[in-house]
Amino acid sequence: MEKNTLITGVAGFLGSSLAKDLLRKGLTVIGLDNLSTGKIQNLDSIMTHPNFFYFYADVCSPEIFEMKELVKTEEIYHLASPASPKFYQTTPFKTIEVNTLGTKNMLKLAKRNSAKIVYTSTSEVYGDPEVHPQNEQYSGSVKTWGPRACYDESKRLGEVFCFLYYTQHGVKVKVARLFNTYSFGLRNDDGRVISNFVTQAINNEDITVYGDGKQTRSFCYVSDTVNALQLMMEKEEANGEIINVGNPDEFSVLAIAKMIKKLANSSSNITFNPLPLDDPRKRRPNIDKAKRLLGWEPKVSLEEGLINTINAYRKNNNNG
């Protein structure tokens, strides 16, 4: 095999999108997933691709190091982890494990193979931020004691492992802090804002906003995120760096609900439910570093991305 790339969490929404893009560019892709939250159907269109090799595997297992298929891996995208509160709060211990032990295993593999590795961290490491917008130097306003901590804190510890493998072992590691990636590939039962609202809107069900809807988010379309991850892998300037990957356009949750209702031509009512514990009030990336080191900024507007997402969900509904 020529230069091959490993993607953990390949059956997830982001992992499968990245795999498809890399295959289009002629790379050989090895995908690992234990299907805890990923869906094998996400890989249907590439499962028979001659340059794609899928393995049911858990990155936390020591058996990873015995897989002969990984001996020549030169690039590792470590995406494995539940990313929706609905899923990581259901399996908090497994979430902690994949972001700590799983991350350490991937870094050990990168060290053994002299491979480059991109670790997908999260904007959740900023907690409920007191600095706005958030830049990479901000250490966050976070809690160890609460329902989101299993994800936030394990991702933070994953970053510590990355720092140590970079400084002590010279591993070419890059950390991407992702801000709310979305597209039609998101599970419609994912429980996150876009998937919830679009599913409710196309079914003309109540669109459920948590809190007063004034909390803000920044949403990045999947093709922009996938592009950023590949630039991080390619560029030497990204070695040993943490880089925000997100769209700096900021919207209130209520504005997003109204936009989706309008774009879907939906008759849904917008209803309000209590805000979940520790839900951040605002979230917006400063992407100056991504612009400087990667020459990257998002290209897809929220409206364009939502139209794509609504159309695809609707088509999926009709096919289902």
TrEMBL record:
Family membership noted in the UniProt record: Belongs to the NAD(P)-dependent epimerase/dehydratase family. UDP-glucuronic acid decarboxylase subfamily.
A Pfam family per the record: GDP_Man_Dehyd
PANTHER family the UniProt entry points to: UDP-GLUCURONIC ACID DECARBOXYLASE 1 (PTHR43078:SF6), UDP-GLUCURONIC ACID DECARBOXYLASE-RELATED (PTHR43078)
Organism: Thalassorhabdus alkalitolerans
Pathways involved: Nucleotide-sugar biosynthesis; UDP-alpha-D-xylose biosynthesis; UDP-alpha-D-xylose from UDP-alpha-D-glucuronate: step 1/1
Membrane topology: Single-pass type II membrane protein
Name of this protein: UDP-glucuronate decarboxylase
Domain NAD(P)-binding stretches: 6-306
Cofactor: NAD(+)
Gene3D superfamilies according to UniProt: NAD(P)-binding Rossmann-like Domain
Domain of life: Bacteria
InterPro entries listed in its UniProt record: NAD(P)-bd_dom, NAD(P)-bd_dom_sf, UXS-like
